Amino acid sequence: MTHGTHHQVRFWSVYEKEAPLVAEAIKKNSSVTEINVSRCYVTDQGLQHLIGALNHNSSVTQLDLSENYITYHGAVSMAAMLRTNTTLQCLCLANNPIEAGLLYIIEALKDNSSLKGLDLSSTFSDDCCLKYLAEALMFNTSLQKIALGSNIFTAKGISHLVGVLKHNTNLSLISLNQTRLTKRGTFYLGEALKESLLTEILLVSCGIDNAGVRHLAEALKVNSTLEFIDLKENTIGAAGARHLAEALKVNTSLKALDLSQNNIRDAGARHLSDVLKVNSSITSIGVCANHLGDKGARYFAAAMKVNTTLRHVDISSNFISELGGGLLVEALNANSSIAKFDLDETDLSREQLWALHQAARSRKPKVQVIHDAYNLLQSDFLFNTSAPRKSCKHCRWMCYCVRGGICESLPVTRLDFLFDLLSQPSMTCVIACGF
Predict the structure, then answer these.
(1) Residue 330 and residue 281: Cα distance in Å, rounded?
(2) Does pTM surpass 0.90?
């Protein structure tokens, strides 16, 4: 399958009998750059054939071997290839039972000078491997992005990363998604971030609470390189949001912050919105599914009216009614910088949807609005402004009549009803409006 100048090949199964044929095809092809054999039942024997092909191929730069059956012996063979291969740039070995074979992969990193991205999610058996990885990364000068998610590390294990993150100047991204971090673990991580040159860190679903995030916030006060921190699905709460807000008052490098599903509630929204009024570096913020109500919407609306750097705001899946939704729509109309605004699952009246439609079409640059009912109703077919506006005597609602004989009039108190409008139009309204 070809996309532009990049040639990608996706296999759906590579059993032992099929592996020689697949390997032969790869060996002869000089245009394929990306090979995806994830979930393809690749065993150690099948991997041997693929490695043999890669030793004769100089075009493949990305190899995805995730979620297969590669064990110790396969890992040893892969390590031998990594010591001599000079073209492979991205390798994914996530979710493979390589166990002790991981040590050979790690040792090979000391000699490899081509890998830029490595995914070892769900491959570590203990902290010992993390210690050896830290030592290897002190020698490696090419690796830029590494994923270590879904592993079980103790605070002592995380401490091994401190030296690496302080002294390795090549690493730009580290992912610890779904790795349980204790308070002590986040302390070590925070200490490392104070002097780290990382630009992105992913900490999704790491069990970080308000005490843990405080260590990260202290690091943000002095860190000058971190641009994106992903804290989705943690439990920082309103107190944690306050710690981060305090840090953002002095931090000038962070550009994107995702706090979705952290239960920050309206109190946390107030802390964040206050700092957004003065912070000029944040361009993207996510507070999806945080139990925000109309108060939280009001706080963010006030920040949006004065902030001139935000480009993306995600406030979807909260408990915001038409009152709060109206404030957000009004703020969007007053803001000229936001290019993407996600308020999906927010109750909006017909008038507010219409205001969004007008704002999205008149704004320069145009804004992308994400909302279930808005996306359904934004087309010219549904917003036919040339049609006469009239009152329906049956439903007693002012409405815009649209082409095709469907009347928009419906007493909308919840957005779900908008979908019923298209699937089950009221015949009384159609008749009353003259169709």
Answers:
(1) 23
(2) no
Six token digits for residue 183: 């308070």
Cβ-based burial of 173 (10 A; exposed 0-12, middle 13-18, buried ≥19): middle
Helix (H) or strand (E) holding 374: helix 372-377
- Beta 398-400 vs 389-391: how paired, if at all? antiparallel
- Which residues, at least 6 apart from 188, have a Cβ–Cβ distance to it below 8 Å? 155, 158, 159, 161, 162
Crossing angle (nearest 10°) for helices 294-306 and 265-276: 10
312-314 and 284-286 as β-strands: parallel, antiparallel, unpaired?
A: parallel
Rounded distance, CA 185 to CA 191, Å?
10
Strands (E), 107-176: 117-119, 145-147, 173-175
Count Cβ neighbours within 10 Å for each residue of 362-401 and write b for 16 or more, e otherwise.
eeeeebebebbbbeebbeeebbeeeeeeeebeebeeebbb
User: Beta strand 34-36 with 256-258: parallel, antiparallel or unpaired?
Assistant: unpaired
Backbone angles phi, psi at 395, to 5 degrees: -100, -10
Spell out the per-residue pLDDT of the chain, length 435, in tens.
333 344 777 776 677 677 888 888 888 888 889 999 999 999 999 999 999 999 988 899 999 999 999 999 999 999 999 999 999 999 999 999 999 999 999 999 999 999 999 999 999 988 889 999 999 999 999 999 999 999 989 999 999 988 889 889 999 999 999 999 999 999 999 999 999 999 999 999 999 999 999 999 999 999 999 999 999 999 999 999 999 999 999 999 999 999 999 999 999 999 999 999 999 999 999 999 999 999 999 999 999 999 999 999 999 999 999 999 999 989 998 998 999 999 988 888 877 887 777 777 777 778 888 887 776 655 443 444 444 444 444 443 334 333 333 344 433 333 343 334 434 434 333 333 332
Handedness of CA 13, 18, 21, 24 (dihedral sign): positive
Could you give the 3-state DSSP secondary structure of residue 355?
helix
**In the block, residue with structure tokens 């059956």:** 69
Look at residues 185, 278, 176 and name the one whose alpha carbon lies nearest to residue 232.
176
3-state DSSP assignment of residue 409: coil
Helix, strand, or coil (residue 56): coil
Q: Are 298 and 271 in contact (CB under 8 A)?
A: no
